[in-house]
Amino acid sequence: MQVGASPAAALVVLKEMNADMAQIRKAQELFEREAKALKSLDHSGIPKFFDFFVEEDKKYLAMEMIHGQDLEKRIATQGPILPQQAIEWMIQTCEVLEYIHSQEPPLIHRDIKPANLLVRRRDNQIVVLDFGAVKEIGTPLGTRIGAEGYSAPEQDRGQPLTQSDLYAVGATLIFLLTGKSPMHFYDNRGNGYRFYIESVPTITPKLREVIEKVTQPLPGDRYQTAPELAKALNSCL
């Protein structure tokens, strides 16, 4: 440890690939992809990567330990979040997405969901976790990755775009404000499947418009960039 470095800076979390997963080639690939993705990223909303190593045939990621609670656990223990706090956290998520989407080539997270969004205890800021599903734009179609309710239609078809991550932010907002899976509000009422949230009292008409736009079935009908979505969310505060 460097002289003058804070003790907290020395805390490292080791992520080990379990033995069952190590037998599955796809799982190995995702684990190594997470190492590669984290190594190239430098943002306060992403855990710092220190090392990737193999010891006695076990693979390990060494990364920054972050103290906090993920949003899935937060809702499970405390119930739905007030709109202002939920919006602020999703704006912070957009800032991380703007950073990864602006890489060359752009990176798509592909697994934005409450369990992968950690609220850091020391400053109440969002940290985006789990970069194993990260995909570079332009790479060949891969396995479908994504959580039910949060995964955009094109991603379900194995064709993720940066707008797919934005869709997941909209779905996450539904969960944060209702405490229910977004699938609870997902229905086909004659014009294709989409979220119907007009009955949720905590969602104002303005915020509802933003959520409905960013979760449109067609990527071209959504906000096109993370800053654009962040600006729309900010107007709802």
Summary tags:
alpha+beta, single chain, 8 helices, 3-stranded antiparallel sheet, 2 domains, disordered N terminus, Phosphorylase Kinase, domain 1, Transferase(Phosphotransferase), domain 1, 17% strand, 237 residues, 10 strands, globular
Describe it.
The protein is an alpha+beta fold and 237 residues long. The protein has two domains: 7-64, Phosphorylase Kinase, domain 1; 68-234, Orthogonal Bundle (Transferase(Phosphotransferase), domain 1), CATH 1.10.510.10. It is built from eight helices and ten strands. It has helices spanning 19-22, 25-40, 71-78, 83-101, 153-156, 162-178, 205-214, 226-234, and strands at residues 12-16, 49-55, 58-64, 68-70, 107-108, 117-120, 125-128, 135-136, 186-188, 193-195. A three-stranded antiparallel beta sheet has the order 1-3-2, covered by helices on one side. Strands 4-6-7 form a three-stranded antiparallel beta sheet. Strand 9 and strand 10 form a beta hairpin. Helix 4 runs antiparallel to helix 6 (162-178). The longest helix is centred in the middle third of the chain and has 19 residues, at 83-101. The chain is globular.
Structural class assignment: alpha+beta
| CATH class bucket of the largest domain | Mainly Alpha
What percentage of amino acids are in beta strands?
A: 15-25%
Quaternary status: single chain
Succession of helices and strands: EHHEEEHHEEEEHHEEHH
- Count of helical segments? 8
The residue ranges in which pLDDT falls below 50 over 5 or more consecutive positions are 1-8
Q: Could you tell me how far the N terminus lies from the C terminus, measured between alpha carbons in angstroms? A: 42 Å
What topology, given as strand order, has the largest sheet? 1-3-2
- How big is the Rg? 18 Å
CATH topology of the largest domain: Transferase(Phosphotransferase), domain 1
Overall mean confidence score, pLDDT: 87
Number of domains: 2
Principal-axis shape? globular
Helix content: 25-40%
